[in-house]
Amino acid sequence: MSRETRQVDIYTDGACSGNPGPGGWAAILLYGNEQRELSGYKEYTTNQLMELQAAIEGLKALKFPCRVRLFSDSAYLINAFTKDWVNKWQMNGWQTVKKEPVENQEEFKTLIELSRVHQIEWIKVEGHANNFYNNQCDKLARAAIAAQGGVDRRSKRDG
């Protein structure tokens, strides 16, 4: 199999202790029998930003162009690509339909660049359900917050 045709699954999740507040992100990359876990922390952020950061970091970890199935429980992230929001935002000068600036523009621009390198299928999974890798990403993201002394103050609707 050539490098360009390798299939990688990436599961991602972001977490925030308070929203905004201390945040964590995580990505699990699966290729054949190999698994790689990544996670990180940001002192003051939002849940949406951590969801985007998880996808960015997962994609940046790939060493060459791949076919990627990216799984996330973030409707914000997945819908931005599957419902063509990013193209509409670009055509509207990075403004929403309400003529307001799109939040997290830089992260979306980075994801657009990464989607030019990789063939990405954006897949929505149900959060906090029976998806092992999504649940593991949630644990890793929360552990990244805890490792920095953060406290889990989220409400049911935060994550």
Task: Characterise the protein shown here.
By secondary structure, this protein is α/β, with parallel strands linked by helices. The chain has helices spanning 47-60, 75-82, 85-91, 105-117, 132-147; strands at residues 7-16, 21-31, 34-45, 67-72, 119-124. A hairpin with a 4-residue loop joins strand 1 (7-16) and strand 2 (21-31). The chain has a five-stranded mixed beta sheet, sandwiched between helices. Residues 153-159 have low confidence and may be disordered. Helices cover 36% and strands 28% of the residues. It has five helices and five strands; from the N terminus they run βββαβαααβα.
Helix proportion? 25-40%
Distance between the termini: 38 Å
Q: How many strands appear in the DSSP assignment?
A: 5
Radius of gyration: 15 Å
Low confidence ranges: 153-159
Tell me, rounded to a whole number, the average pLDDT. 91
Beta-sheet strand percentage?
25-35%
Structural class: alpha/beta
Q: Please state the overall shape, judged from the principal axes of the Cα atoms.
A: globular
| Largest sheet descriptor | 5 strands, mixed
Please state how the strands of the largest beta sheet are arranged side by side.
3-2-1-4-5
Number of helices: 5
